[in-house]
Amino acid sequence: LDPLNPEKQLRLAEAYAEHDRWDDAYALLDRINDTYPDFHEAKFSVGWLTWRRTGESGPALEALAALPPENSMYGLRNFFGWLIAPEPDERVEALERIQEPILEFGGFWWAPRDLLVGSTFYELDPSRAVPAFERTVAICLTALEEQPDDPRIHATLGRAYGYLGQREEAIQEARRVVEILPITKDPGFGRDLLETVAYIYAALGMGEEAAEALETTFCWEVVATTGFTDVTVEMC
């Protein structure tokens, strides 16, 4: 219906990548970049998908550096720079460019900047990380008074509790995320949030639970299609 729309083509390339059809994804991105040389989001997507696939951050960072100053990459430019920074000192530098007190991206991410501060300094300087995670907890608890069923806030709260070593509280929040938005209900955002649940369990040293959560995310297509979570996960 709209074959020349670069935004829709970019979404298709990302969908190919979600299905591990990397050749199709890169081929389509190459066509988009040839046809729309000023569509910088597609240039970044090449590096972003490469980072997701291989862990190599160079192409994505180069694409971010080449963006025109007015292009905020849907408001995520600085966040992406922080997320894929390969070295601790580069991540600290990237963090300074993020000044929003709350970072909120669609249906899968809600977090105070303090969570990023804690994550950045978790190994570098625990004396800075711990207070940041404690502030994260306080902000999340306040937010949940108005949005008690927002799984993104519960996911962030669970991560902060996990970093702080508050095991029971972290597990409770992880379970609450899955209860509110199971992957069978929303295979898109549900999958993203389940990845966060895996991070929570991993931070607590709960390898079996983390592996089960990740296994479900990998099998999300089958789960979403059939609705038989236990059966499909075991099959995968």
How are the secondary structure elements laid out?
Elements: H1 6-18, H2 22-35, H3 40-54, H4 58-65, H5 77-83, H6 88-96, E1 102-105, E2 109-112, H7 113-121, H8 126-146, H9 151-164, H10 167-180, H11 189-203, H12 207-218, H13 220-226, H14 229-235
Antiparallel strand pairs: 1-2
Helix pairs in contact: 1-2, 1-3, 2-3, 3-4, 5-6, 6-7, 7-8, 8-9, 9-10, 9-11, 10-11, 11-12
Task: Report on this structure.
A hairpin with a 3-residue loop joins strand 1 and strand 2 (109-112). Helix content is 70%, strand content 3%. The chain has a two-stranded antiparallel sheet with strand order 1-2. With 236 residues, the chain is mainly α.
